[in-house]
Amino acid sequence: MVRLNPHRVDRENHNTPILFDREIDDFAHEILSEYRPELLREPGAIDFQHFLESYLGMQIDFMDLYSKDPDRPILAMTVFKKSRVRVFDKENGCVRKITVPGRMVIIDNAVMEPGRESLALFSGMHEGGHITMHWHVHTGETLDGYVYDPDYECDESIESLVCCRRENIESDEKPRKIRTAKEWREHHADYFAAAITMPNRTFMPFVRSLLRGNGCYKASVTLGRDSDLDILVDDIIPDAINEVYGVSKRAARIKLRKAGFVLGNTI
C-alpha cells in the first residue's frame, strides 16, 4: 500500500499534512499505479467499493445517517476507531445511537439511490482521501499499523470519526489562504477524490482530444465570450467525462476549471 509522506505537517493540529494540490495529484497517481495501473493508461471509472474494501481494507456499511440540520445532510463518514453514530430509525420513527467498529466507511442510504451513482462514487473516494491522508491524524498510527510519530502523543480530543456533509463533497469552494486544519483536511479529501477518479495522466489528453474533436484548438475557454464554446465546456464535455469516468457533471466542471481548461464562473 502506498503511504503518504508529506514534507511538512502541522504539529499543532494533530500532524495534519500540509500539502499542495499537485502533491495530492502525484499521490493519487502513485496509488493508481499500484492499485489499477490501467486507469493511468486509458480513461475509465474506478470502483469505489472495491478500492475501499480490497485496497484500503475498510468495511463499508449503508445507513440512514442523521443530521441535526436537514440543509446540511451527512453523505458519508469514516469511522477510524470504535464510535457511537446517530442514525434515523425509520421503522420506529426516531433517532438512535448505535455503536460501530473502527476501520469503517458509512455511506448514507440516500446517496445510494438509483440515479445518484456519480455522487456515491465521489462520496466514497472522498472518504478514501481521509483514510489515505488523515488516518494518523485520528489514530496516531499509519493505516498499516505503525506509530506515525514516536515523539508525538496523540491528542484524545481529536474525533474518532469524520462526518462529510454535502458542502464538503464535490466542493466548489474558492481558494482561501486561511483555513482551519479541519477545513484543510476536507479540501485534501475532496481534491483527492477528483485526482483519483479523474487522474491527470488520462484526463488532460482526454479533454484536449474532446476540444479538438469539436473544433476548438484553444488551450482554455473563457465563459461568456462564445455561446457555442460555452455549451461545449459546460455541457458537452462534462457529459463525456461523466460517461467515461463516472463522475457527475458538477465534479467534471470543477475539475475542468481547476485544470485550467475553463476560465470564468461555471458549475
Question: Can you describe this structure?
Answer:
- The protein is an alpha/beta fold and 267 residues long.
- The chain folds into two domains: 8-197, no CATH class; 202-263, no CATH class.
- The chain is 40% helix and 17% strand.
- The protein has seven helices and ten strands.
- Strands 3-7-4-8 form a four-stranded mixed beta sheet. Strands 1-2 form a two-stranded antiparallel ribbon.
- Helix 1 crosses helix 4 (181-197).
Keywords:
2 domains; 267 residues; alpha/beta; four-stranded mixed sheet
Instruction: Point out poorly predicted stretches.
Output: none
- Structure classification: alpha/beta
Element string (H = helix, E = strand): EEHHEEEEEHEHHEHHE
Main pleated-sheet profile: 4 strands, mixed
Mean pLDDT: 93
Give the strand tally.
10
Spatial extent as radius of gyration:
19 Å
Query: How big a fraction of the residues is strand?
Result: 15-25%
Widest sheet: strand order? 3-7-4-8
Q: How much helix is in the residues?
A: 25-40%
Topology:
Elements: E1 8-10, E2 16-18, H1 21-35, H2 48-55, E3 59-63, E4 74-79, E5 83-89, E6 94-100, E7 104-108, H3 117-139, E8 161-165, H4 181-197, H5 200-213, E9 221-222, H6 227-245, H7 249-258, E10 262-263
